[in-house]
Design a protein that fits this description.
- By secondary structure, this protein is of the alpha/beta class.
- The strands form 4 sheets. It has an 8-stranded mixed β-sheet, sandwiched between helices.
- Helix 2 (about 90-100) packs parallel to helix 3 (about 120-130).
- It folds into 2 domains: about 20-195, Rossmann fold (3-Layer(aba) Sandwich), CATH 3.40.50.2000; about 205-375, 3-Layer(aba) Sandwich (Rossmann fold).
- It starts with 18 loop residues before the first strand and ends with a helix.
- Strand 5 and strand 6 (about 85-90) form a beta hairpin.
- The chain has helices at about 35-45, 90-100, 120-130, 145-150, 155-165, 180-190, 205-210, 230-240, 260-265, 285-290, 305-315, 330-335, 345-360, 380-390, and strands spanning about 20-25, 50-55, 65-70, 70-75, 85, 85-90, 110-115, 135-140, 170-175, 195, 215-220, 250, 275, 295-300, 300-305, 320, 325, 340.
Length: about 400
Amino acid sequence: MPGPTAPGPRAEPVGRRPVVAVVCDVIYPYSRGGRELRNRELLPRLAGSADVHVYTMRWWDGPPVRREGGVTYHAICRLHPLYRHGRRSVSQAAWFALASLRLLRCRFDVLEADQIPYFQLFVLRLVATLKRKTFTVTWHEVWSRSYWREYLGLAGWAAWPVERLAMRLPDVIVAASPQTAGRLRQVLGADAAVATVPNGIDLTAIRAACPAAGPADLVLVGRLIGHKRVGMILDVMARLHSSGLRTTCRIIGDGPERAALEQQARVLGLGPAVDFRADVSEQEELYALLKSARVFVCLSVREGFGMAVLEAIACGLPVLTTSAPDNHAQHLVRDYSRGTVCGPGLDAVTAAVAGLLAGPAGPAPDPAVPADAWVASYDWAAVAEKLAGVYAR
């Protein structure tokens, strides 16, 4: 049974700031990914105009309620492992959904939830209905029936309709990319209440970052899980090494496939040519490592947005990604003057990497200025203003 009940926000006088309750099973820095970073950047900015409370698992030691950056964090259940056998844990999703019932005892004006891991959305729809409050869900990506089957096997037949049904639960959906918004409307209809509020970047911090010592030819950033296809870059490097091009690579991130990837690098004889970095804890360090590389690579077959890709673009690096249908990061790369989109197969990726390394690489000549002016529209301040507008409707 989940741990002690976390108290809800106290009632305030008329004219008080609106109370926004955000339900998300992962938080930064204990878990690192695009949605964790999105909340870490957006919620403190929203705290200037709203009373923001986050309800999550108990990631930290100490009391179940803590305050940081103007945001109050509540642990509504104990920490359950997110992954089992390399896939998201069904039991974790069920426990977190059950714990979400505790929001019946909390005061809020807007109930905001993250799409993942789906089960909690059914509970929170009930909570919002009983409390007569607006229910908003941030949707990062839409999966297809075929991808659910690939991910879960036969169980994917059940997961696909669950996702479709979950889409119909919110009063408002906040899509993290225009492509995700488009896919949502394909399912829900053109008049569906879907607002696009993309992920963002900290342009000020990126511009201030200096390249780190220890350069690398290639750099990848992301959670080390199957759909990111990090193992393919190791196969690419093995091919390049066999042709005489002694390429180096830095892989920044952690996840359930880390040990297997390290083993793959050893088997391929790549040894010191691959630098696994699971210890990067600050964004400033990440930006410095990005700027010390020659080319950024994203081979994921599934990206709802591609925050790391956008960060690499803002750093001025050449960026390579693939045309995999569910990889929405390709749309950012296609708009980028130093972007390359190739086919998702090993031959196409190898040729594209070799071509980029043979040409001018590394950060743009003026690292203080983003390579393309459109990048400025993704600054977190602008994104937070858009999200505040959705809550104010």
